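Example record

The entry below shows one chain as it appears in the dataset: sequence first, then structure tokens.
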Amino acid sequence: MQSKKFQRKIEDFVCLHCGAKVAGTGYTDHCPKCLWSLHVDINPGDRAAECRGFMEPMGLEIKSGEKIIHYQCQKCGFKHRVKAGEDDNFEAILELTGRGI
């Protein structure tokens, strides 16, 4: 049985959606420029998902003052949500506010 414990991985990457070079912090799970991600984890940081589909940012929720981005995998339909990062593109976050989740 796999652990649900968070596994911190410090990885730099080039966003496959917009081409931005991203310096990972160990908590980086999406591109701070376009907010897109990849379906690579079963549990945060494990890189065990075989799908590897694009995770589209679908909407935004504010919960206890935190911005939470809702994602859906374009390949398999998996849904996930994650806190927005402090360095995330504010305009891209604003665009999510008009979408239903």
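Notes for this example: The mean pLDDT is 90. Helices lie at 90-96.
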